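Why does residue order matter? Because the sequence determines the fold. Keep that principle in mind as you read this record.
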Amino acid sequence: MEAADFLRMVCGRLVAGDPAINVALREIQVAANAGDAALGVKGIALPLTAHDGVRYVAHVLPLTSGARRVACLAYNAVAALFIRKAALEQDVFTLKSPIDYLAANPEQQLAQPPLSSWGAGGYAGVWLDESNDWIYRYLHKASERMIELARQHQDANGVTRRALNQASRELLLAQSSDWAFIIKTGTMVDYAVRRTREHLLRFTRLYDQLKDGSLDEAWLAGIESSDNLFPEIDYRVYRPA
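Structure:
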C-alpha cells in the first residue's frame, strides 16, 4: 500500500492498478455493503500482480451481515481486506494436487472409512429395509447388463452410441437414492415406485433392442428428450478395464 503498486488509496477509496481487478473490487465492496451472503455469491478472492511481476492474492472478509443491516445497526467498515503473497512466488509452501503429493510422498498412513451415512442411525438402514429392498435385485441386474453392453460395444457410433449412452442415463436415474429414501419415509411413495420402475423398464427395453439390433430411433429420441441429464455421458465408463 505504501508503495502504491497494485493497490493504492485515492480520495479515501481503495483502487487497484489493474482496471479489471478494480471493477471486481468495486463489485465486491458493493456486495459486502449488502451483507456477507451477497459477498459469498460474488466470491472473496482476487489475484493481484505487482509492477515487478510478483503475484499476490487479496482475500475479502465481510464485517456486516444482512441481519445486522435489517436491524438498522450502522457500521463504518463493511469488509476487511487481507493481502498475501501467492504460493507461486515463494518457497514457504507450494500448491500441489493430490496426485502430485502422493507421487512425492508415496508412504502414507492408510485408513478405511467406516460405512456411514446421514440417514437415521448413521448407517444404510434408511435405504435398505423391508419397504424398499425389492428394488436392489433389479438394479444389480441392470448394472450387470450395462457392463455387458459396454463390453460388447467397444466403440459404438451413431444411433447405437446414443442408445448405449441413454441406457447409462436410465440406469443412473433408476439408482437414485431418493427413490428408496422416499419409499422408506412414506412420502410420495407411488411417485418413487413409478420413477424406479419407469427407468428400469426403459433401460431393459434399450438393452433388448441393442441385443436384437432393432433400435426404435423415434422412441429413443423421446426418452433422450425427457431423461436428458448428463449430456456428455459416455457409456464406455462401464467397460471393464
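Confidence is low (pLDDT under 50) at residues 66-74.
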